[in-house]
Hints:
Layout: E1 3-10, E2 17-22, E3 30-31, E4 34-36, H1 43-55, E5 58-70, E6 74-85, E7 94-100, H2 110-124
Parallel strand pairs: 1-6
Antiparallel strand pairs: 1-4, 2-3, 2-7, 5-6
Amino acid sequence: MFQVFSTAVIFNEHGQILLVKLTYQRFHPWGMPGGSLDYGEQPAEAVLREMFEETGILLEIEKLLLIKTWKPDRVGMYYLCRIKEGEFQPSEEVSEFGYFSKDNLPDVRPFDVGLIQQFYEMVYDNELA
């Protein structure tokens, strides 16, 4: 089955990335917020919906950062976002959230470590300017 998902990439004013702790992920439970698209849903709509459903936080999309494919059946779209309003509320899928520096990440999947590093370079080395 082909999987398409959208992910929010959010940095605070101190250059730390927002990560969420997933309740259903036994190993490497921390990651960037997001999820799979519903049938007929646009990727940008999905990232906004997923963030609100999982955390109670409303986002504003600044720009599409990256489209990444891997395995023969996965496509991910990563959007640079900022928090528009709302306060974190735990959900069935997300128990915690926090901001982390690239040198002090919690237990994230090894694949995500490389992506997070890439996003730091894209945003802070003015690749997006």
